Amino acid sequence: MGCEVDWAFIQAVEHRPKPTIIEAGGIPLIDLSPLNSVGPDGPQSLSGLIAEVGSACRDWGFFQVINHGVPLDLQDQIKSASKDFFALSPEEKRRVRRDEVNPLGYYDTEHTKNVRDWKEVFDFAVQDPTEIPASHEADDQELQELRNQWPTYPPELREASTEYARAVEKLAFKLLELISLSLDLPADRLSGFFGEQTSFIRLNHYPPCPAPHLALGVGRHKDAGALTVLAQDDVGGLDVKRKTDGEWVRVKPIPDSYIINIGDIIQFCKSPGALPTARETAYSKE
Question: What is the CB neighbour count within 10 angstroms for residue 85?
Answer without folding.
Answer: 23
